[in-house]
Structure formats: C-alpha cells, structure tokens
Amino acid sequence: MAQTSLLQGKRFYCREWVFNKIQLCLQEKANISELTSGVNSTQPPLVPDRGAFIPSRLTAGCTKSGNAWGVLLVGGAGSGKTALCTELLWPTRGQKAHYSLHQQSLAFHFCRADDSDTLCVGGFIRGLVAQICSSGRFPEYEEKIQDPAVQRILQFGECERNPIEAFKRCVLLPLLNMKPPQQSLFLLVDSIDEGCQFGEGEHLISSSTPKTIAELLVSHHELLPPWLLLICSARKQNKAITKLLRRFHKITLDDLRKAYIVKDVQQYILQRLDQEEALRQHLTKETAEMLNQLHIKSSGCFLYLECVLDGVVDNLIMLREIRDIPGTLNGLYLWLCQRLFIRKQFAKVQPILNVILATFKPLTVKQLYHAVWTKNMTLTMEEFQKKVEILSKLLKDGIGNTKILFHNSFAEWLLDVKHCTQKYLCNAAEGHRMLAMSYSCQAKHLKSLQVHDFALHLVHSNLQIEPFNLALWMIWNGTPTKDSLNTSIPRDQQVLQLLVKAGADVNNEDTHASSILHQALEKEDSIRTLLDNGASVNQCDCNGKTLLANAAYSGNLDVVNLLISRGANMELEDNDGHTPLTLAARQGHTKVINCLVGCQANINHTDQDGWTALRSAAWGGHSEVVSALLYGGAKVNCTDTDGRAALRAAAWGGHEGIVLNLLHHGAEVNRADNDGRTALIAASYMGHREIVEHLLDHGAEVDHEDVDGRTALSVAALCIPARKGHASVVSLLIDRGAKVDHCDKDCMTPLLVASYEGHVDIVNLLLEGGANVDHTDNNGHTPLLAAASMGHALVVNTLLFWGAAVDSINSEGRTVLSIASAQGNVEVVKTLLDRGLDENHRDDAGWTPLHMASFEGNQQVCNALIEQGAHCLAVDNDGRIPLILATQEGHYDCVKVLLENKSCIDQRGYDGRSALRVAALEGYKEIVELLLSHGADIDHKDADGRPTLYILALENQLAMAEYFLENGANLEACDTEGRTPLHVSCWQGHLEMVNLLITYHADVNSCDNERRSGLQSAAWQGHAKIVQCLIEQGAQVDQTCNQGATALGIAAQEGHIDVVQLLLENGADPNHADQFGRTAIKVASKTGHSVILKLLEKYGATTLNGCNISPVQRMETKTPMTTTSQMPSLPIISSSSSSTGEGDVQLSVRGVANEPMHAFSSPSESPDSTMYDQKSSKSNKSPVSSNNSLKTTSSTATAQTVPIDSFHGITHTERIQQLSLHCSQIRQSSLSASSITKSIGQKLSSPSCDFNWSQLKLSLKSTKSKNIVSAKGLMNDINGRSTQGQVLGYEMTQFGKRMSNKSIENISMKDPQKLMAIDSIQHKREQCHNHFPIQQQKCLEKKRNGIMTNPNYYLQGNQVFSGRVPQTLQNESHQDVLQNNFVENTDLYLNQDLRLQIEESDPEFNYKKETPL
C-alpha cells in the first residue's frame, strides 16, 4: 500500500477550482447519505458466505439518488494529477479553502508505474484496512477486522488468491454496516490506470480474479457506502478507464478551452516568479514575452512548465531559448537530453537507465551498481557514482534511499521508438538481462518473491533461449524454486510455467496453483445451471458483456446455441461496442459465426473503433470467417475510424488468400486510409511480393502518394531491410513502371533512403532502373553522403562505381570524407582518400577530417588520415588542434597516435586550455600520465594566468590534484592577483583539498597581491573547519592586509560566530584596529551581530560607549505595522538595465499602498556580506554577485509586484513584466522623509556619533573591468568570468571630517558648478517632506581584492559621490565654502543636481580612501 506520495511537501500552485468541485461532490454525497440512511438502517446486517454476491437491494438507494459514483481526475502526462492528489491529502497552503478537505480522507493509495508493489491488488486491500483502522473513525470496524476468519483472508498469499472475497469481507461489508459519519468521506486512488495494458483492439476483459486495482474498483465501486466518495485519477489517453467509469464526475485538468485552466497555467508562472528570486534574476522586459510563449507551448502540462523553469533556475536553460524548445513533452525531453548529455555521455549512462526501466521495484544505488557491474565487471563504485551524478537531473530520490526517474512519462519516452531518437532510445531487455545476471550471482539466497522476480527477468530478457534451457539456468544456479509457489502465484503465465519446469512444487493441496494452469477451461461450471436457477439470459458483467458475448468470444458453440434458444439478444453491445458476432470474428470462431449469421445477427455492425466483423477477421487472418461473412452479405468496403478497409488490413498482415477473396468480391484496390496509404503501400512496406503483384494486376496505382509524399517504392526502400523477398518487391515495382526518382516531401528519393539504410541490393536495382546517383534532399545530402554517414562500405563502393560525385559538400561545409571520418568506418575513409578527397578540408567550424576522427575516437581513421598527410597541428575556429579534441573526449588511443606523430603537446586553444588541462579537468588520469610522459608542462597557465593545479583546487578534484602534486606541480604558482591554490581552496571551503595542499607543504601564510592570506579568505566565507586547520598548521591569526584588516575583523563583520570564537581562542587581538580605526567590535556593532559582540567583550575587547543602536537592531525592534504607519515609504526604481551601456540613469517612482518598506538596510544586506551566501558559495564553483538582501528584498519585491489576484485588463506578458521590474533594476530603496529630515538635523560630534548615512543606499552597476571589488567579485575573477552587468550595492556611510579643506577648495577652483550641485542638494533636502528618491549611477569599482571599496568616501576616475552633505560640518571652512557657492535656482530637481555631477565629474577629484571591511 502506497501510504505516502513522493511529492509530499512540495510547493503547490493554483487549482482552487478543482478543490471547490471536489467539495461540492462531497456535499452531494452527504445529501445522498441522509436520504439512504433510513433505508439501510431497516435492513439486517448481511455477512454472506465465501464467494457470495451482495444483493442488489443494498445499492438501490445509491443508484437512484446520485448522479455520480465518484470523481475522476483526467489529464495528459504531467498535467499535475498526482500533485493535486498530494495537495488534497497534505495541504501546503493553510490559508486556502481546501485546507480542511484532508480531514475528510478515509484512505488513499498512490499507484506508481516504477513500483509493482503499489500495483498489487492484495497490498491495496491490506493498505485500505490498515488506514481505516488507524483513522479511529470506526471503533466497531476494528473489532470486526480482528475476527480470525477475516485475518486469515488478509494474509499474504490468500488475499492475492481471492481479492474479491477479501475486498467484500474486509472493506465493503464492514463499511456498509457502519453508522454513517457526520460528514461524507473520500477514498482516493491516484493513477488507477497504471498496470492496465491496452493494445490495439484490447479492452478490460472480465475475469473471475481481478488482476489490477482498476478491475477491482470498476466491478465493485457501486457497492461502496453512499457516504463514501471515490476519487480516482487517470490519463485521458486511457479511454478504457474513462468509459468504465462513465458515471463518475470527470474533471479534466489540461483542457485549454476552459478559461480557468488557462489561468492556472499563467498563475503557475506568475507565482513562481513572485516566490523565487533565483527565477526573477533571469527576467527582463525582453524575456517576459518568452514566458508568454511558454504558457502557450505547455498546452496545460505543468510538468513541461516545471522542467523549463527549473532549467532556468539551474542555469541550464536561458529564457530566450524558450522560442526554440519544442512544444510537446516528448520534444522537450529530446531537447533536454541534447543539452544535458554532451558528446558520448549518454552512452556511458545508458546501462543504468536500462536497469531502471527494466526493474519492477525501485533500486538503491548499491543494487543498481551490482546490476550494471554484471555487464562491465571492471566498473568501480567510484566510477559508477560519477555516472549517477551525470544523471542527477533525471533521477530523484525514492523511498528507502532508492533512485527513480523524475517522471514516468520520461521512462515511456526512453522506450518509445516513435518519439525517441536512436541515440537516446533505451532497451529494457538489456536491463532485464543485467538484473537476471545479478540474481544469478545470489541465486542460492533468494526468497520466494525474489525467485519470481528472477524468473520474470529471464522471461523478459529476450535471450532467444528455449524455456527448458532457462529452467536449467535456474537449477544450475541453485535457485530455491521448490517452495516458490507456496505463498503466492505469479500472474504472468510464462513465469509460472518456467517455475514449474524449474522444479516448483504444485501439489494437490494447492488447488489454486493447479487451477491457474487451466483457468481458461474452468471459469464457470455450467451456464445451464445458472439459467435454471433464475439467472437472466441477458445478464451483463462489469464490462457490459452478456453471457452470449462471453460464449462467442471463447468459441463455445454449445453454450451459444443454448443461449440463443433461451432468447438471448444477439445485438446487445458491450462497453466497447462489440456484439457477439464481432467478438467471434475477432477470435476466428467460424462455427459460431455461421450460427450467429444463420440466426440473422447484424453482419455489418461496427464497434466504437469502426471495425466490422469482416475487418476484424481480415486483420486476424481468419480466411474461413472472411468467406462466411462475405457469403452472408457483409459489405466489403466498410472502413474503420482510420479509414482502413478489410483489404488494407489483409494486405498489411500478408494474408494472400483473404486479399484475393476480397478483390474477387469487389474490394476497391485504390481506397486510401486517412493517411493516404493504400493496400499496395501497406503490402510494399511489409515486403509481401505476391500481394503486391495481385494488387497491381487488379489495377493498383503504382505511384500513389500518401500524406508524406511517399509511394510504394519509397516505403519499400525506406522501411524494409534488404533480406529475402524484399528486394524482389522493389524490382517488381520498377518493372511495373514506378518512378525511381520520385521525391517525397523531404525531397528524398528511394535511392537516398536505401543508401541510409545500407540496402545495397536495392541501391543496385534503383541505379539499374535509372535513379539519379547525385540527387540531393532538402539538407543537401546525396546518397554518397548518406551511405558514408552510416558507414555502409558496400553502398559507398556501389555509388562510386556508378559515378557518384565525391566533391559534394553538405550544409555544414563537410565533405564525404569528413562525415566518413566521424562515422569511423576506415574502409570507407580509405576508399575516399584513394579517390583524391582533400584530407585537410576545413568545414564551417574549422574542423578537418582529422578533427572529426579524433573527436569520435576513431583511431584507425586517424592513422589513415595521417598517413595520407593530414596536418596534426591544424586548428579549428576555437584554436583547438585534434589532440585537444581527442583528450577532451577521453580517447586514449587517438591521443597516443597524435603524440607519436609530433602533435604540439602544449598547444592552447583560444580559451587558453591545453590538452593537459582538458584531460585533468575531465578526470582522464591515463591520458594525463601519457601527456606528462611526453613532456607536457605541468605548470602551464591559461589565458587568465591560472595553472592547472589552481583550477583543480577550485573544482575540488582531489584525486587529480594529488596526482599533479606527486608529479611536481608548483604549489605556490599563482594567478595574476597573486592567489595560490590554497587561497582558492580556503575561499571555496574545500577542507580536504586544503589538507592535501598542506600535506605537500603549501605555505599557509602566503599572501596575494593585497596581502590577504588563506586564513582571511576562510574567515570571510565562514569556513570554521578550514580556519581551525590553518591555525593548527601555523597560520598567523593577526595577519593584516593592505588595509590593516585581520581575519577577526572580517569574520566579525560577516557574522561568522564559530570563526570569531576560534580566532579568539587562538590568540587573535580583539582590539586590533585597521588603518581607519575600525575594530572588530565596531564593525560587529554596525552590522548588528549581538552574539559576536558578547564574545568580543568576553575576550577583553573595548566596548563602544555612547554608540547609537544600529539600523538593523532598530528595525528588529519594530513591528511591521509600526513601520508602515510611521514611515510612509516610496520605492525607488531605476529603469537602467544590464544592457544599458551609456551610463544614463532615469528615475521612475512607483508605489503600492499599504505595503511595508524599510528605509535602511544593514551592511550584511549588500553584496559585501557573505554571511547569508555561504551555502551558495560552497555549492557553486564560482560565486557570482547577487542583488539579494536580507530584510528588504521581500518587502521591496512585494511593493513592486502587483498582487496576482488584482490583475485585470492586462495581458499575461504585462503581468510578467510587472514581476520583472525589480529584476531589471540595479537596486531598490525606500526612504521616510520624516526620518531623513530628523537625521539630517543631528550634529556630528564624534566618529562614533556621526550622522548615520547607512539609511541611504547608493547602488552602482559595474561594467566589464579588471577592477573587481566585492567579495564575490573576488571569486568571479578567480574563475575568469566577465563582470559585465554585475550589480553591486554599497552602504552609505559618513562623509564626515575626513574631507579636507584642501579638497573642497580644489572643487571650488576647478568647477564651481560641482559645489553648486552639492549645495542645491542640501537646499532640496530642507524642503523635502514626503518622498526623497535616491539616484542610482553606474560606475567603475576600485579593486580591493575582495574587500569592498566604498565610493561614499572618495571619487576616483568615473566614480561620483551621489550622497548628501550634512547641513553642519565639523570643519567650519567647509560650511563657508558651501555658503559662498549657494545656488540661486532653488527649483532644481535632485535628479538634475545629480546629473550635473555625473556629467561634469572631475577625474582628478580624490579624497582619502576609507573602506569598510
């Protein structure tokens, strides 16, 4: 029993209308229960004997009172059925109306295709009983279940043998005899259609023992209590289920004709944007239209939306790429696989997928490894873990540490020949073989159910071995088969027979096991006895089949005659529209057909698929039945819903006699189906030469085209392999005048497709018939290119013999030689070289044939090309030589060949990566050894000046880094900023890498160009274990950087309590001050880290006397209501985006009423702080700058995001653009005018009591520059990434008395307008009462190697001071200067003042630099 869902706890969106409908259905059930309670209470409790049926009078009230028995949720794959059922049971949104529905749940069950246990009928029944007992709603029910007879029925094995009896006695009857509860309840079964297999023409067939949960519920749901609502979900494609549950209230989840479903899709996108900052970061006005396209492309599939949006969050998909993603789930899977699996990665992980697809139960990683190991016994667990990591995007964790595919529709796609390409097509049979071998290795220790699984995998492994040999296999392995049938009987008859042949004991005492072997003969003892005892002659089962229909289907002529004599209706249809005549024709029972036809049954009746009895018999090859029907007057040209007549069905099946019979009775030879295919095309496709000849003799049109433009000759050449009999079809068609150069809609001729398939006999026949040997399709491919791309040497030789042009080039600029080199058939390559093709031809990407062969790992082709004179040093458009490509793909043999032929071992591509760098990063140790043995430079640096060991440390590749160190790699090799591998490892938090480097004597006190040590980097990021390690190895705890900061001061600012405590315990000076007088306790106080303040005081730090409470502490003491009421706020929005290049800034003011906004942020809110970014910096290989803030992000985002429910009259794209406002801005700020005015009036008496400029936020957007100043900018530079468009936020701090008189005088002398602008700002500040926007300006940053340089203290280069000057400065000369330059135009706007500064900034204007930690 699946008593949980794998989606439990996952965030749920929308779908409120569904819950409202379910609530209405529950209320309707409650009304029905009130009406029927009086009727049922007057009847005595019924406890029928074993196998007895519940009388129909028990359900009379239910049938007449309600319009629906239950609710059926239907939708396509990924429409959110399971997620909705999960939310119904475990709601995640407490404020919604459906929150209380879970209280009405009686029991539930989740069917999963990847777990056969969840599809077991016996387990389903036992799970229902357990949940009803544990619910506590019916104490008397628990007493009934404790009855020994009931317990015996519930036992494992007994419940499986007679599930109907168990379901009636343990669930139905006890619940019917219970007093109705106060409110109606529901029973939920998710994915009820899982495990039901329906092929062409197949439907649910009644059986004495239901094999699936669906069969059990379909035949007994009418017997459920009137107060119990059955809620099921199923795919809408499974029409058999929907037909059987036709009285259920059907709710479709992905019908986009309904406005509320379209709204669901839109709201899903909008709510994810509103709640996920990582998604909003990718959003701009330009990409908003892409999300509008996404909601259209999804077709209501939430899985489609989730995959795309998750891909955007994971940086796997760019929003602009949405226009290129296919609009179907199958197309999306193909697109994602092409993105996830580069080069030949999929082939490496395909065995794992084959095992997962073959298993019937989820497997753990260890079990998966053991199965895959049976195919490759050299595979280690470490290598297997790497393969599993490659599949991390496609696998998710199941119950019990198992691994399963993220969705069953993806598993179906991997096995779907129609939609999955050959490259990604998986083979379940191979998985069965590996699992069978895995069971073979432990055969002696298998339990009974495991023996069943072993036999099942052997049966499905497609080994082409006789069953008795499979039985011998099990015997020789010592499999304990003797008692394997004691507890349960496998449903698969092949498995049962295999176990019996292998020695399973089927004794007389176990009558059930014997009955299974003969179940087809022992369904009923006697129909006559039933009729004599009052049974209706037209009685129907749950599928609508009458007794006559069942007898006709099984071919029991005696019973058919008996029922007809008793007056059975021969025209009654079952649920699929079948009559006894059509069922008998499908099975080929000629005598039954003659009987029914003789009794005047409707001979031309059609079922729901449009099949007549004649169509069914012709498709099944029942020639005698066809003759009987034709003799009885059946219409020969009737067609089904696909437009296919009996003639086409017989031609497809190769039934020559039936084809001739139909033609003699007037069948239309050129009648085409809905796809335009005639009987001739069908017979040609299947290679039935005799039928093709008969059809042509009767006037079939030889060049008739189907909807794809293909003729009979086209399909004969395309789809049929050249084996016995099929080439003769092509020859016959050519002899009868078929056009050999006919082009289909892809402009492909029969010769071209035969060349692709490698059918050399057909190629010869077509060329002899005059086919154009150099014809090209829409992609520029000739038959020679096609044959070379598939490696068909015989076809290549044949085409060359017939004069095919060898100098053709396809749309990518590749010659036949290039394509053949990639394919790897050396014989074809040598043939083309002998024909004089250029071995050094470059395609559009700059690749030569040697590049192609090296990339694909074709060693023999590489040798052939080099012998012919191919250049080993030829570079492609990316500057890469063949050696780099071969190394990149891990082709050891090719690398060896290229090195032996004097390929430049240290050649770098334009990205600066050499072959050694590529091999090291890919983990190809053998290739690394080979390259080093040939003299590769182990300390080679890339274009960014980083050695390979440095990158290995950055990527935390321990094994390869250790190998480099063993081979003499320079530990102290650094990048252009002076950072060594130890610096990088400390910053990234790679403890094992740090230990490794120290083991090899790395200098723990080495400093970069800014004199920062690894200890300071680790302290900055909060890596306490690394800090401890470095201190133990002798790192100087009070090492200072160029600004005088120590590790303690940095950790105190960032709020890393563990690091601060470690440093203090190891002697760090708590009173150390940097060159600007800042101590650890001062920066900790400013950032509001109260715990750190106590720690510092404990270790003797001097306390701050008279220090104002920090803005963060002040904010935390206020409630949101107080903040809102006392601080009317205004969001400040800059319209400049990352694409702005000129630096012009426009101000736009937007506000939303009653939204709380904070007027300040702490320094930890800016990108300077990493306290709340540790996790991302540890998980990412190269940290990036972020706009996230701790206390202002949520409120600011809310203020600028229109509530979803309030969108009226605007398009979906406009809603997305509303959400994208703060994503495209540089920084948001909201200021209270009253609080600002009050603060401005304060006196600046001392540094500790200065005016707090941290209430004003200045945001600057950096452009691409070598100067990177933020802490995250440090690692961006380490990883060599561009910083263009990076957003940085600075904390405004005091301007104060550090401004010298000389500097002010310089301003006045050089440009008086600057002082006029500053004075105007001061004047406007005095007049400001309501709102005060802060302008944002893009500027360059001063690199401080990770320590932020605050532009509020100085101006240099393009940096501009855009804060405010206090009204009163301590230095009176400053005030005099400002007063003497008062601006007369007091109406000048603030943005005009700031623009004046921006446009006329003086690059020589520079104050003393002071930077916060």
Describe this structure in words.
InterPro entries: AAA_lid_TANC1/2, Ankyrin_rpt, Ankyrin_rpt-contain_sf, NPHP3-like_N, P-loop_NTPase, WH_TANC1/2. Keywords: ANK repeat, Phosphoprotein, Repeat. It comes from Oryzias melastigma (Marine medaka). There is one protein chain. The protein is mainly alpha-helical and 1413 residues long. Among the domains are: 16-119 and 185-253, Rossmann fold, CATH 3.40.50; 261-337; 346-430, Orthogonal Bundle (Arc Repressor Mutant, subunit A), CATH 1.10.10.10; 442-523, no CATH class; 974-1103, Ankyrin repeat-containing domain (Serine Threonine Protein Phosphatase 5, Tetratricopeptide repeat); 1114-1192 and 1228-1399, no CATH class. The longest helix has 26 residues, at 16-41. It is globular and about 110 Å long. The relative contact order is 0.04. Mean pLDDT is 74; it is low at 38-67, 198-207, 508-526, 1106-1208 and 1221-1413.
